[in-house]
């Protein structure tokens, strides 16, 4: 028995429609997967750097590479970052943690200093053959990367004190991050002048250590001259401080608090602008939480 065989003709238009539909579905699936991966992925940026002295960003988009749909979905925490009033005030390497949905990742930031110190200088007068330092020209060095280092641009500048006259020279002021700035200054050499005695005679308050915002310039001891901090332990001025501190400090506060216990006391060094100690303050705390400064009646 003969059997007839035949081939069904394909429909090109139908085939084209099927292929288009498959491609569309494929693209749609890829789009959904990509959107889901973008929406629910947490990728931390690398090599994040911030300049010291600037405000640390709280915008999560500055820290993640993925698309941020809603910033409120992210929680960000920093570890060990040194700030004061929101300003980054210390260079270093720090970590941060970001949490999104059920994903938590740790990142790293570097706080850097690329800015030279803010420096103010003044002319300096010394006697013939009187020693002086490059620091003596600097009245202000404002920088987050202290200490400031001051040096002569020309090493022979320290020998300009041999003869009476007025001399121009250059100093270089650098911070601990090696940012530096040059300043031109004038050295005046005068016969009979004494820089050391001039510094010692300056009894104007410049700053205190430690620094307290509540200090109103109350001093328990005022010196008649300034002392080098490295030498004051051998002076009569320091002996006087020891005598006061060894006595009952109630004698140096308002009698109203005579029955309150002194729970803590702290010495405060008072300096002039040349870095010499010109007196002492004593800060005490009472058992009622009040903070007072001692002073002689």
Short description:
With 297 residues, this protein is an alpha+beta fold.
Outline the structure in words.
The chain is an alpha+beta fold and 297 residues long. It has three helices and 17 strands. The protein has helices at 12-39, 195-201, 236-245, and strands spanning 48-51, 74-79, 83-84, 87-88, 92-100, 103-112, 118-121, 124-127, 138-142, 149-152, 165-174, 180-190, 207-209, 221-227, 262-271, 277-286, 291-293. The strands form five sheets. Strands 13, 14, 15, 16 and 17 form a five-stranded antiparallel sheet that branches. It has a four-stranded mixed sheet with strand order 1-6-5-2, with no helix packed on it. A four-stranded mixed sheet has the order 8-12-11-10, with no helix packed on it. A hairpin with a 2-residue loop joins β5 and β6 (103-112). The termini are far apart. The relative contact order is 0.09. The mean pLDDT is 88.
The main β sheet shows up as: 5 strands, antiparallel
Count every beta strand, where a strand is a DSSP E run of 2 or more residues.
17
Let me know the average pLDDT: 88
What share of residues are in beta strands?
35-45%
Give the distance, in angstroms, between the N- and C-terminal Cα atoms: 138 Å
Quaternary structure: single chain
Low-confidence stretches: none
Q: List the secondary-structure elements in sequence, H or E.
A: HEEEEEEEEEEEEHEEHEEE
* Broad structural category: alpha+beta
Helical proportion, percent range: 10-25%
Shape, principal axes of CA atoms: flat
| Gyration radius, in Å | 35 Å
* Helix count, DSSP H or I runs of 4 or more residues: 3
């Amino acid at each position: 028995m003969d059997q007839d065989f035949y081939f069904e003709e394909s429909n090109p238009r139908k085939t084209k429609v099927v292929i288009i539909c498959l491609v569309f579905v494929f693209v749609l699936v890829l789009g959904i997967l990509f959107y889901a991966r973008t929406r629910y992925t947490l990728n931390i940026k690398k090599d994040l750097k911030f300049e010291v002295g600037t405000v640390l960003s709280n915008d999560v988009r500055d820290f993640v590479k993925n698309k941020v749909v809603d910033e409120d979905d992210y929680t960000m925490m920093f570890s060990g970052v040194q700030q004061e009033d929101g300003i980054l005030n210390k260079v270093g390497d720090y970590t941060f943690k970001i949490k999104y949905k059920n994903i938590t990742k740790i990142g790293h930031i570097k706080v850097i200093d690329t800015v030279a110190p803010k420096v103010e200088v003044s002319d300096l007068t010394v006697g013939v053959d009187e020693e002086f330092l490059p620091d003596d020209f600097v009245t202000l060095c404002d920088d987050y990367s202290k200490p400031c280092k001051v040096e002569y641009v020309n090493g022979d500048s320290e020998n300009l004190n041999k003869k009476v006259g007025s001399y121009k020279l250059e100093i270089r002021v650098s911070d601990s991050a090696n940012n530096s700035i040059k300043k031109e200054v004038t050295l005046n050499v005068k016969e009979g002048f004494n820089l050391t005695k001039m510094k010692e005679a300056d009894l104007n308050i410049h700053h205190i250590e430690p620094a307290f915002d509540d200090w109103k310039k109350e001093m328990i001891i005022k010196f008649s001259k300034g002392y080098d901090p490295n030498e004051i332990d051998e002076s009569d001025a320091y002996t006087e401080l020891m005598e006061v501190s060894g006595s009952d400090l109630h004698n140096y506060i308002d009698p109203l608090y005579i029955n309150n216990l002194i729970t803590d006391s702290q010495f405060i060094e008072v300096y002039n602008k040349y870095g010499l100690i010109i007196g002492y303050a004593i800060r005490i705390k009472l058992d009622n939480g009040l903070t007072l400064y001692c002073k002689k009646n």
